[in-house]
Amino acid sequence: MTAAPTDTTYRNPVLNADWSDPDVIRVGDDFYLTASSFGRAPGLPLLHSRDLVNWTLVGHALERLGPEGEFTTPRHDCGVWAPALRHHDDRFWIFWGDPDQGIFQVNAPEIRGPWSSPLLVKAGKGLIDPCPLWDDETGEAYLVHAWAKSRSGVKNRLTGHRMHPHGTELLDEGKVIVDGDRIPGWFTLEGPKLYRHDGWFWILAPAGGVETGWQGALRSRAFFGPYEEKVVLEQKDTDVNGPHQGGWVRTPSGEDWFLHFQQRGAYGRVVHLQPMSWSPDGWPVLGDDGAPVAVHRRPDLPPQPPAAPATDDDFPGGRHGRQWTWTANPREGWATQHSADGLRLTCVRSADAHDLRRLPHVLTQRLPGTPCTVEVELRLDSGEPGARAGLAVLGDAYRWIGLQRGTDGAVHLVHRFAETVAEQERDADHPRPAPDGTALLRIEIGAGARCSFLADTGDGFRPTGQVFAATPWRWVGALLGLAAVAPTGQGHAGTATFTRFRISTPARG
Q: Where is this region: Disordered (predicted)?
């Protein structure tokens, strides 16, 4: 068995949910992290830590995705890919690639904003994973990015540019500075993070694919190359598959650390923290001589109380916490503010009411990476026949449990699912009465993201349907979702109210 963490050690993963493609920086005594958010809004989550182990979510840098017309409906695997976070000239900067549009940039004087409107720095299909560098020694600025073959027909290479020091434009047409096809055994080279250290330009970049890859380090005396390479982190004999793609950060005392992801199926890409040192020949050494660590001495930083991104929510005044994101750009009227606790969602009329994957008004948060129990109270206030609301495990296949108003005016507990290839959902169990129009919904999520659904409609919790193995999308882990929807028609279709959302997990140890 893996040893338990202590007051002087930590255990990986330090962020046990889908914080995909993390990048990290230090400003003073504070550490900040951002991650991919794909097609959800708001995007570009911002996390804060004082010890690199305990993290909290403090906001988002991107309120809405653009152009607006492209994100009025869900595009689950598109949008914000692999951002880079930097601090320069007393400002925070985030660069990211949208594989269908190009490379964008936002910046702000403080991590909590206000953040600038997105600026398109380089237009083009398949431009992904950008990272800037401001060279304090020369005053020059650079940018490196990778390529998505699905959009450009190109992959396994990194392109470098000179960049205006203001971060607003590129100063040349770009040059391939690393061609992964010329490195024996390397493929899918992507996710570069650019640094200057010890007289070298460093590119820390993953290769080998999301689930099976490794972390590479490349160095050159000149930005445009040539670069030499070395594998610095790989699975070896551990159970951490594909440990790669992340960022390097140095503590005030001079310790080096590396945060990266591990792909875990329906849980998405969870975040690990690796110790980092330097070999006599000047190469970085990650983890335990290049293998990821499970338990390790904590960073030499002041002790902090245990913390993690919030999950529970009482929805005070009808407002949801910052852990929630919509599956597309939100519209006015989806949620109603009021004087009490509880999330009051409009039963939005939609021709896609038969398929949660197509609905932009599903409010989601990340699926925890450990066994847990999810509970929420639901009251269906809508009198519209066919109006329904519930709690979902949402992915390329999905399943949800909730309440529906029948044509006879009665409210029923329903449990529905859709397979990956199915174009619409169907019943997972026979509907049963919910006399008061209320229910307490529960999902018990076990090992392997296997989900059991239960509900209490006044006579205690009773299971419903079969066990469901949560599934991710191509790049996004499965999500927990709250939704309210109604068939097409005229007029307002009423609301549903969710209260006391809770996720309980076994104690770590």
A: 299-322
Phi, psi of 448 (to 5 degrees): 70, 20
DSSP state of 399: E
Annotated catalytic residue 459? no
- From the list 466, 468, 459, the residue with the least C-alpha distance to 393 is 468
Instruction: Reduce the DSSP state of residue 360 to 3 states and report it.
Output: coil
Model pLDDT, residue 264: 98
Averaged confidence pLDDT in the chain: 96
Token code pair at residue 492 = 């307002």
Please say if 190 is a catalytic residue: yes
Set 18, 129, 190, 425: catalytic member: 190
Peptide bond into 5 cis (omega under 30): no
Choosing from 18, 21, 129, 313, which is the catalytic residue? 21
Residues whose CB is less than 8 angstroms from the CB of residue 381 and which lie 6 or more positions away in sequence, other chains included: 437, 494, 495, 496, 497
What is the pairing mode between strands 479-486 and 348-349? parallel
**Residue 137's pLDDT is what?**
87
Query: What distances in angstroms separate CA 384 from CA 346, 388, 434, one per listed residue?
Result: 12, 9, 16
Closest CA to 198 of 259, 255, 139, 283: 283
Beta bridge partners of 246: 260
How far the first Cα of the chain sits from its last, in Å, is 11
**Amino acid in position 432:** R
Confidence class for position 319, pLDDT limits 50, 70, 90: very high
- pLDDT band with cut points at 50, 70 and 90 for residue 7: confident
Q: Which pLDDT value is given to residue 54?
A: 98
Both tokens of 172, joined, read 């040349």
CA 482 and chain centroid, separation: 18
| Tokens 């909730």 found at | 402
